[in-house]
Amino acid sequence: MIEVKQVVIRISRPSGTDPGRVESAWYRVIKDMVTLTDREGVPLSKEAPSARRATRVEARWEAPLPPDSDDDAPRRIAGRILQAKWRASHGSDFRTRQLHYPRGMSPP
Fold first, then answer.
1. Which structural domain range is residue 76 located in?
2. What are the φ and ψ backbone dihedral angles of 93, each rounded to 5 degrees?
3. Is residue 101 part of a domain?
4. Domain total in the chain
5. Does an H or E element contain 87, and which?
6. Other Cβ atoms closer than 10 A to 85
7. What kind and span of H or E run contains 25?
């Protein structure tokens, strides 16, 4: 049976009354490949346009595990994949985060 683990990443830091934001996902490692999955271990797919046709091909949110990696490497790689997945669906953080102005300063 394939072991499915959870990874949690920070999207925004806490600040003042804003508690910040985190995202979590599930991942597994098979044959030196880290893949984001659902809770049951089914790989998450992303749609990517084919270079030759107007059709779409199935791609997965995955990355290779480097040789000579330590025990924590799969979790770190899963975190990087999750961050890329989040950015692909939400845009970069500077466009979606709330701006906090210092006291006495008003927005332009």
1. 5-96
2. -60, -35
3. no
4. 1
5. helix 73-90
6. 16
7. strand 21-30
Domain contains 74: yes
- Is 40 a member of any domain? yes
Q: What is the C-alpha separation between 84 and 46, in angstroms, rounded?
A: 12
Work out the burial of residue 34: count CB atoms within 10 Å of its CB; fewer than 13 is exposed, 13-18 middle, 19 or more buried. Answer: buried
Domain assignment present for 104: no
| Chain centre distance of CA 69 | 20
φ, ψ of residue 94 to 5 degrees: the values are -65, -20
Interatomic CA distance for residues 65 and 89, integer angstroms: 24
- CB atoms under 10 Å from CB of 62, counted, come to 21
Tens of pLDDT along the chain (108 residues)?
A: 789 999 999 988 888 888 888 999 999 999 999 999 999 999 988 764 445 555 555 578 999 999 888 999 999 999 999 999 988 887 665 555 566 666 665 555
Show the tokens assigned to 32.
């030196």
pTM of the model: 0.72
